[in-house]
Amino acid sequence: MQELHCQVDDISLLGKDVYRVKLTSDELRQVKYQGGQYLTLLSKGGHWIPFSIGNAPEENSHLELHIRLIPGHELAEQILNNLRKTRKAHIQLPMGKCVLRPGDRPVVCIVGGTGFSPIKAMLESAFSLNDPRQFHLFWGAQTKEDFYLLELAKSWHSDHDNFKFVPVVSGDDDNWKGARGLVHFEAIHQLQDLSQFDFYVSGSEAMVLAVYYDLLDKGADKDRIFSDMLDIKRDMGEDL
Length: 240
Hints:
Blueprint: E1 2-14, E2 18-24, E3 38-42, E4 48-52, E5 63-68, H1 74-86, E6 88-95, E7 107-112, H2 116-128, E8 135-141, H3 150-159, E9 163-169, E10 179-180, H4 183-190, E11 198-202, H5 205-217, E12 225-226, H6 228-235
Parallel strand pairs: 7-8, 7-11, 8-9, 9-10, 11-12
Antiparallel strand pairs: 1-2, 1-6, 2-5, 3-4, 3-6
């Protein structure tokens, strides 16, 4: 693990409430990480806050973070304001074991909200390396507006024959014409024998655990379901 002092190169709004933060450093090209890993950022209060790395390691000119502002959760707003003011960030990386495993089994990514960030890095790395496996992305959100990089995911669908993208809306959105409901229910519905797939799950703690148990119930292989949240729970002694 390495510590870096970075400059804030850019902060831009993606969608309605997600900000992309780009960090740069002269030492960045010396850092080795894999798509799917995360970093921790030192907050103004002295706490290390985890953020997924949202771009592939092959794109090593910067690090990309996706930060959502949620009403009632002041920490994200404080972090963004501090980054805007100081234009500096102190980070540690890389962290996490939820990276793309080698193999030839088709890969299914099930994500909610900004859980898209580490999966974006993982998929972009796989595309860069011309990984021949079949990749499926099921991305769940409350409304269409919450798919903050929808056109990017659609472009992958158009550009890569081995990639399929299914956005799923769970909230009230009268203008949405696509799949509805819980994102992993749609994945289970569309896939056949779940034991044949590798699953990567990213999102809130509640979402990851619900997906994990439902996948197991429908026949997925316990050892082929990967998530940072599951790793953290196991490290805390939980039997998952």
